[in-house]
Amino acid sequence: MLRALVFSLFAAAAQPATAQDCAVELVLAMDVSRSVDAAEFGLIRHGTAEAFRRAEIIELVGWLPGGVIATVTQWSGADQQMQAIGWRHLSGPESLGTFADEIDAMTRHFRFELTAPGEALAHAGSLHDSAPMACRRRVIDIAGDGIRNTGRDTAATADAIAADGVTINGLVVRGDTPDPLDFYHTEIKRGALAFIEVSDGYDDFPRAMFRKLLRELTPSVSALPAIRRYE
Question: Among candidates 176, 209, 221, which has minimal Cα distance to 57?
């Protein structure tokens, strides 16, 4: 059914590129706070890598005018954010496969720290300034399993980023107390056609990440122009 969805949307992508060089700037922000143990980090890392190896994602990216540029960050407490993988241009099987391999080999940079999604969003938003090319849509994909317990106000940070034309989507891993789902809906999800994908525990993370990428990279969505604050 997912492959049928992808192919039904290909026609929307078969259009000339505009002044921008690619379809989507995608920042993948991964929670590595103390609530994420070593096995769960492995599921995050491998599940994300496998999503980029899926045939549906490879075909979808291949149809997007100019492809996609993507980067990966890791985040935890107020002073723990790092760009773990720099910007990569994804346009076909080889580049997607290399990116997936980089994610699979990625080292964890933080552990045993608190959860500061507002700081994670501020860091992720700043990375768009260093993007190597201009894209029609800018998206932050933030994944986590808990609510804020340190750092700047999450909703205010998300509002400021969205006001500059960035879409913020969330991938919520459920299972913690309090349940983070409402927090992600009210404090994080922002921007045009933003959404929250839900993972039922970490074992479900690979499926949720794959579905999230399909939704973020769907041609009919990716072709929509973002309205930036000063345009």
Answer: 209
